[in-house]
User: Fold this.
Amino acid sequence: MADEALAKSKNCLACHSVDKKLVGPAYKDVAKKHAGQKDAEATLVEHIMKGSKGVYGPVPMPPNANVNEAEAKKLAGWILSLK
Assistant:
């Protein structure tokens, strides 16, 4: 499954888009924020699976229980590849 299709199938695109802020930040902004960080993929995997709070403002990101670790790694890699 293509990475954007995976994001769509896991309902990620209900709150995020590639290039503009919706409820959550644009994926390109996430990639920019984490560029050059050696633990960026692991951080995003954790945020996808466990949720996050206060990283991009006051709206918390709920955990996505529909995503397993392999899928979270694939999504994180795709997000970080966006320019």
